[in-house]
């Protein structure tokens, strides 16, 4: 599914939605699932997210940077989304994209839809032109990594169990 401001990918993963949701709802594990290679480490350790929770993430795309995200959608076992901004004054000027995961039980497992929603991002025009295709590919990799983790019980390829961030 795609529109001007939303890029989505989906994959049926042979696992129950609850197992997938637990992975998504723990920001300390986001480095394991990140298909872009930009997520470095959660700031604040391991904890389960809920609606309204804020969490920080150390990132690196060329240079290191940080993002602060707020959980803006939450339906236990079915949907979680967070909106991300840079911390401090920069966050008043740029940012606002929403990362959303929707889980739907289907024959053979769970349909997982990941969306990159730019409808509230202050840089949406630029990001659509420059990042949409690469982001779509990275999201496909993320769904592959989620499947690997929840079906094998092992960390994603190249990640040590204690390395999750």
Description:
The chain has helices at residues 17-24, 30-33, 124-152, and strands at residues 6-13, 39-43, 54-61, 63-75, 79-85, 97-106, 109-117. It is an alpha+beta fold and 165 residues long. It has a single domain (6-152), classed as 2-Layer Sandwich (Alpha-D-Glucose-1,6-Bisphosphate, Chain A, domain 4). The protein has a 7-stranded antiparallel beta sheet. A hairpin with a 3-residue loop joins strand 4 and strand 5 (79-85). The radius of gyration is 15 Å and the shape is globular. The model is unreliable at 155-165 (pLDDT under 50).
Keywords:
7 strands, 3 helices, Alpha-D-Glucose-1,6-Bisphosphate, Chain A, domain 4, globular, 165 residues, 7-stranded antiparallel sheet, disordered C terminus, alpha+beta, 25% helix
Task: Draw up the topology in text.
Elements: E1 6-13, H1 17-24, H2 30-33, E2 39-43, E3 54-61, E4 63-75, E5 79-85, E6 97-106, E7 109-117, H3 124-152
Short description:
With 165 residues, this protein is of the alpha+beta class. It has helices at residues 17-24, 30-33, 124-152, and strands at 6-13, 39-43, 54-61, 63-75, 79-85, 97-106, 109-117.
Distance between the termini: 29 Å
Assign the CATH architecture: 2-Layer Sandwich
Global Rg = 15 Å
The number of helical segments is: 3
Total count of strands: 7
Helix and strand run: EHHEEEEEEH
| Major sheet | 7 strands, antiparallel
Q: CATH superfamily, please?
A: START domain
- SS content category: alpha+beta
Give the averaged pLDDT, no decimals. 91
Helix content: 10-25%
User: What is the number of domains?
Assistant: 1
Question: Could you please say which CATH topology applies here?
Answer: Alpha-D-Glucose-1,6-Bisphosphate, Chain A, domain 4
CATH class: Alpha Beta
Q: What coarse outline follows from CA principal-axis ratios?
A: globular
- Proportion of beta-strand residues: 35-45%
Strand order of the largest sheet: 1-7-6-5-4-3-2
* Low confidence ranges: 155-165
The oligomeric state of the chains shown is single chain
